[in-house]
Task: structure prediction
Amino acid sequence: MNRKVWIIYQKEMLDAIRDRRSVIAALSYAIGTPLLMCLVFVVLIEKFASPDALYINISNAELAPGLIRQLASQDIHPAGAEHKAKAISLIIDTDYPKQMHSGRLALVQLQGDFSNTQLASDIRRVERAVESYAREVAVMRMIARGVAPQVLKVLDVQVQDQAKPEAKGGFFVGIAIFTMIYAVFISGMNLAIDTSAGERERNSLALMLSLPIRVRDLLLGKLLAVTSFAFLGLFMIVIISKIAYGFVPWQELGFNVNIDGRFIAYILAFSLPVALMAALMQLFVSFMAKTFKEAQSYLTLVLIVPMALAMITGYDLGPELLSWLPISGQQKALMEVVKGNDLPLEPLLIATAITLSLCALLFWALARSLKSEKTIFSL
Amino acid sequence: MKIKRSLLLCLLGLLWLPQANASQLALCHLNNLVDQVFCGQLARPENPAAPAGPSIPIHYAVLPAVRDKHPDEAVLVIVGGPGQAALDYAGHFNRILRKLRAERDILLIDQRGTGRSNPLRCETMENMDQLGFDADNVNIKAETKACKKQLDTDLSFYSSAYALEDFEAIRKQLGYQRLHLFGTSYGTRMVQLYMQKYPEAVASGIMDGVVPLSQNVLAVGESVDEALELLFLQCESQPACEQHFPNLRQQFHQLVQNLGGQSYLQAVKHPVSGEGQAMRLGKSKLAGILRLALYSAQARTLLPYTIDRIKLDDFSPLLGLWGLTIDGLNLAMGMHGAIICAEDWPRLSEADRAAMNKSLIGGDMLAGLDAACPIWNVQPQLQGFAQPFSTQLPVLMLSGRFDPATPPAWAKKIEPRLTKGQHVIFPYATHGVAGHTCAPDLMAQFVSEPGAKLDTSCVEKDGERGFFINSNASAVEEIVK
Result:
């Protein structure tokens, strides 16, 4: 490596580390995101795994002992003095016994505010319990009439999921990978602005350019510094994710999120070109901006692009094309790895090639623009 | 430059990292299970004393743990019958063992002679369940001879003790240090044998519908009588049932008496095909249908009404209950015979025989076995069955009070001899409580901490069902607790 580049790199890193704000900004996302997600999921799973006894208002419960028994077996009870009812009502019609006994439709009303998301799952739970009781009685009625209940089943539908057993948590892992790749963009951002627009605002850019070094070397030094930060952020988020996600009882949801050594190796390798591209893009935008503040505003806007790309991929919404593009291409390849499938080598290589080509293009454009006074003095 | 190049090579190398350790297991789909699981087989000598002789493939499946927190443990599922095949019930066990599978592999093995492991089945014997079939006048000897000829193998190698060696060999092959055993009905016998012979390979045992080693399984005849008596008592305790079906007990005994040794032909519609057919109804068929209905917590609520309707020559409810049994137990009869004739039939005492003959179904059963066992011609294998079972290992026993096969009293016989045993009785459950109660929650609790005292509060949430008083609904009134 060129010695001059190395000196510039050291200078930029020293600058960056002195500026505590950049360091904290670089790392707060990487540390905070997995911890926050871990916390949210621990709480959510706790709630999901052991549904509490549910107390609801039941009118005319005495008319439907069979139904009440079935509800109780699923831990749904009429509210009493001890337990306050949730705002869900099950109203058993006064004609219920008569209708039941004559084999006619018996009216049961289930009332609640369906737009209240806190109640929605409880309402569904009551609905399912009521329906399962109805199914059970239907089966008995068939038997009593001399018809085997399997006649109603008609088809023996065998649904067969061809995914590998380890692919179960794929959806969540897609989201987790998105947060990791995004770290590459967040972690280097402050440094990218500081080292370009900031340098100019402190009037030290012209000074540096007057030194006997080539613009290319100067740029390379700055680029490597920003990339280092971006990569450090990625490394941190991956390691902290590995530790934090280990504490989440995923198995209660029927899948596992396992960040193993192979995955870590892959994500670090695949994201290196992305980190480079992110750094270049941020440097480019910052140099084009007139002030530090302007650079911040522009970058916030520009960051929406990789975020959207990674998010669409994470939720698996985008077209096939995404597996060939930068960011989404690497992300898709990682998702396949997590699902235990073969690495999609061809799309990954093409996505990487496009990423690197973009890097070259941005580097060339930046080096060119830094030869212009317009950029140097932001005229 | 050198560093750069080696770095590049490193990065490229990452792309070809080997896939996580490939194993001898293959991905497969099993009945009623959406997920892919792992299937494998192990060739075992049919006669372990002659390892060079013919071998049979013992098939098994591993439902991989969602998160393998205990890679050196698995839950081994052992089904009943004898003659059922564990792999056929993969979907069922995947559902009820969901909480256990969260952290441990579930291992299903088709016991030798069942399912895919050299099944000893005969078409002729399994098709006996037809409407016109005369259950009271079946030529068991001829049927058994034909089946035996078709199977053409020495059934002596299919007893529990041999099967146990297969289980242990598969445990070793898969590299599990210790197993949590989960046996149902006859499967609980295998659990006890396993604990006795290989205690170091067992972490804990769950027995659902306990058949103690010293208990002759043929005593189910008396269990059916007791379950029927419990049904009559329960009906008397529910005012609506008592009111609609007074004298149910007498009515029932009268019915059986009237049938006597005869069988009646009755024009009916087949409960599945809907086609007009003749049903032959005799005491054996009636008892068989009622017996199977007692296995289901729901179906048994129809029994008072069913018995009542027969009096009025309405056979519809009986026919519907019979329809439930068509896809029924799906037993490999050769394997069933191999075990019963080697382990239970030879140890019947005169008193046992007398008791069987007195019970509703026992007499038929005994006559059938006396005819079939000499033809199956298996070596008696009574080793280990005489002395009462005892163990230091943690044991969870599950019973249903209304169980018409393995009543709670059977489990109680071994309860005092278990130093770390717990026995949970579900007040309104029948046979195989794990399938229709909160027992799976208790099992998950138990396996996660085998020695600890269980929180059994969920048992009370399963209340009493009302009996159907007509063809539409059970009684509407407070059920007397």
